[in-house]
Amino acid sequence: MPEAEGRTVMLDDTFDALASRQRRRVLVSLLDHNPQPDQLEGAIAEADGENERIRAAMYHNHLPKLEARGFIRWDRNTHRIEKGPAFGQIRPLVELLDSHASELPGAWP
Fold first, then answer.
1. pTM
2. Can you give the residue ranges of every domain in the chain?
3. How far apart are CA 15 and CA 41, in angstroms?
């Protein structure tokens, strides 16, 4: 089991993190750009009129879940999102899925 700053990252944690489109968007955006000061607004803007619901879900569910697993660091005051201490553990899977996006069913990310 991989460890990141004292955290054991389980494979189930990585799949759970990737289970939501909003969480996938955050993780994919961090592949090339770290930190992401406006990632939250970008993910919300693409939500097709569901901004308030998506914003609430990001603040109360998606970002806290990614942060708790160490995949991101999130400054709630500035909305700055950056790679967390365990990002390296999920990165290979995010890269693999992103590089095969056209072959995946549904929407990626």
1. 0.80
2. 3-99
3. 24
